[in-house]
Design brief:
Length: 264
Amino acid sequence: MRNLFHDAPRTALTAAYWAFVIYLLLPLMLMMAMSFKDANFIAFPISEWTFDWYAKVMQDKQFLEAIIYSILIAAATTLAATTIGTWVAMLIVAEGIKGQAIIFALACLPAVVPGMISAISMRIFISAIDMPTGTAAIILGHTVHAVPFVVVMVLTRLRTMPSNLVDAARDLGADSVVAFFRVTLPYLWPAIMGGMIFCTLLSIDDFVRTFFLGGYQPTLPMLIFAKVQGGMSPEINAMATLVLLATAAIGLYAEYKTRRSRTR
């Protein structure tokens, strides 16, 4: 009886955990199941299963163009956010720099500001500097949002780096630039790679900022949103399933890189 009461909190916690997992995954599983429905409407039961909707999606020119456009924006965002985030992280741990706590707080602020507020403020900002909506504005908004994640990941790695590594390189005649590229950068690379992957995911999935900053050419989330306005169909479920699987694969790889960077 004592063991029963002793294990009760753990059992309740485990049950709550799996209930939460089911709550999160069940809608996704239903969405994926509906992408194989043989009819034009979404409802149970599914009398026959088909891959026709996936074939139709892969032949959809708008879908393919939106994917390419989203990937190009994500690539530019990742490059800019990784460069800025790594530089800010280096600045935070550098010796002789005052106000490092303030720098860290300002760098991480975009991650805690609500997406709607961030998108509205970015729209006001680009209007103030006469920047037209479109690709450049989207990249700017996505970069501002992605930088904090790179800062946190790189900063965590930097704080575990032995200081004698750079000192040894200096003793061997390397200047600051050579020491950075030959010692610091290889040490930070796992964290930088993890940050780059997170930047890519954030950019591809970002709907709110794209909605406020975008032009006429839609990204993938914008295209799916536009198609939903015309009514739900298994084709939309197929699109969402493909995006979900790709995002999950990239996310799992990012988690692997993050864990590896913490243990190395």
